[in-house]
Amino acid sequence: MPTFTLTARAEAPVEEVWKLLHDPARFPEWWAGIETVATAGDGRYTMWPTGYPDFPMAQQLRADAPDGRVTISCLVSDLVFRWRLRADDEATDIDVEVEIPDREAHRLPDQRRQLELSLATLTALAARIS
């Protein structure tokens, strides 16, 4: 199963980054390729990719606040995004590991580019609002 890991640093307290990461309604603000989100409760939500208004994608989010972890699973394509936040004084270190099933391996380069852009936007947004 193809995987990749990215790391970034937000010049913002971990609580501010957490607010953006564990709330799917905030994803369109920073996650590249996500245009719209509708939450359903219990960590379930539907995401519509940018430019595809007729392609809803069911998702599941599991958050573990004490450990600073958020896991997002795409219930359509089985991609898994494992996020981890670590406080470092008034800054936050962010790791994201992405698992892509073999049948979706062709999407790895695009997913990596989208996550690189998303991390940059997430860290800038967190710094701006803190």
Explained architecture:
- This protein has 130 residues and is of the alpha+beta class.
- The chain has one domain: Alpha-D-Glucose-1,6-Bisphosphate, Chain A, domain 4 (2-Layer Sandwich).
- 26% of the residues lie in helices and 42% in strands.
- It contains 3 helices and 7 strands; from the N terminus they run E-H-H-E-E-E-E-E-E-H.
- Strands 1-7-6-5-4-3-2 form a 7-stranded antiparallel sheet.
- InterPro entries: Polyketide_cyclase/dehydratase (IPR019587), START-like_dom_sf (IPR023393).
- This is SRPBCC family protein.
Query: Which range does the strand content fall in?
Result: 35-45%
CATH topology: Alpha-D-Glucose-1,6-Bisphosphate, Chain A, domain 4
Helix-strand category:
alpha+beta
Portion in helices: 25-40%
- How many beta strands in the DSSP annotation? 7
CATH superfamily: START domain
Shape: globular
Organism: Paractinoplanes globisporus
InterPro entries: Polyketide_cyclase/dehydratase, START-like_dom_sf
Protein name: SRPBCC family protein
